[in-house]
Amino acid sequence: MSALNVLAVVSEIFPLIKTGGLADVAGALPVALAAEGVSVRTLVPGYPPVLRALEGGVVVATEHMFGGEARIVAAKAAGLELFVIDAPHLYAREGDPYRAPDGSDWGDNAFRFAALSRVALLLAQGLVDGYRPDVVHAHDWQAGLAPAYLYYAGGMTPSVMTLHNLAFQGQYPAYLLGALGLPGDSYTVNGVEYYGAIGYLKAGLQFADRITTVSPTYAAEIRTLAGGMGLDGLLRARADVLSGIINGIDTTVWDPANDSYLPSDRAANKAALQERLGLRPDPGSLLFGVVSRFSVQKGVDLILAALPALISAGAQLALLGSGDASLEAALRAAAGPDIGVQIGYDESLAHLIQGGCDALLVPSRFEPCGLTQLCAMRYGALPVVAHVGGLCDTVIDANEMALAEGIGTGFHFSPVTSEMLAATILRVDAVWRQPEIWRQLQRNAMQTDVSWRRPAARYAALYRELANGSYGGSNGTMGTGELAVRSAPS
Ligand code: ADP
Fold this sequence. Notes:
The protein is an alpha/beta fold. The chain has two domains: 262 residues, Glycogen Phosphorylase B (Rossmann fold, 3-Layer(aba) Sandwich); 192 residues, Rossmann fold (3-Layer(aba) Sandwich). The C terminus is likely disordered.
């Protein structure tokens, strides 16, 4: 099988810059795809930490882009093959890639991420001698204009749009249309228009040849009014090209047998975690962990409401995360000998929680895939998850039948309310008091293949299908656009 060239287009990539699971996926998938005969180059913005991480690097092109010079640099970093857009007027800002220090979105995000997609188009058109991708793979709204640019340029390269979270959509004023290099007639319901604005994610979903999201259940949920966040009509219309591929985790980064952040075995890790968060040093308390962004999505408020039940069960909580200021304040106020709280982003503590807690709480109201429950399973912490999205697809509930058959890997709860979370904490506690059964569940969880092996094979198959022209034509003759227009909502 000949090697296939894929250009991944993404706004964050682990270990160079990360705000969430998107970066984990972007950093790990290329390595897994190499084993499938797929060669991935990833196009990323040249934020300061990205530029600092580059090893070598060659300027392969220079373009004038949205008010300044953009140098396209081909380089390696952390084992990844990259194209980096070195455009100081757009990206030379420290900190969060999307927000200013005051928490508001950067005012020029429309251009910062249009540039990402624009360079993807130029690369597909042969900007760099000897490089032409067979497929362009755009991730989330930041890369959403890439399929649209490709379409309006003639649709010569097939594209995949992957949705990691429908809650972030990227909408910008209609008057930017010309400045963004989009044709006047693109501002229609079958084009980039979305509720009176230019929708970046909408554009990607409209024009990509294939749409994937990160679990089969989320792929179904987003086609419903309740789960579609305004895009369910379009996603229903394009259901024939929409599929769900579960994420994996990087099993070299998350390797309990070889994790420099962990002192030793589970008992020692638990003691270290209790000490680090100022918890009562009690090996006999059921210790729950949380590693999460604090947002309505993640259900951190449900944990707060369930704390009395957790405490009265004699359990403890080790919680790491940041986000919503009112949740941060409420958690700080709740901290005590049985509730350990650290606000912030901390890789080492994230590993210690996974290696030291007995069970990990993931009470998300919606969850496209979720990665922390996969890490937990690999580390022998049993995930306690809301019965939504990718959490459904990755954790097997230890219900009566599963326990009888010895097949559970964690616990589900539904409806996603604090009462049900509290009741489930008691259910977990009852199982925890049966060490033989608990150990069996841990073994099941740890033996589950949470690597990228299976997902990478599915992405590779998808790319090959597209590269072979089975997406409805190629070279712009009958391709991407006609497919998209045909299946657009009326
Ligand atoms: P998200 O919706 O935030 O992307 P995921 O579960 O898909 O959720 O991915 C979250 C990733 O970010 C995981 O790798 C998790 O370990 C990490 N993470 C989240 N919060 C923190 C934190 N405060 N410190 C360290 N890592 C974190």
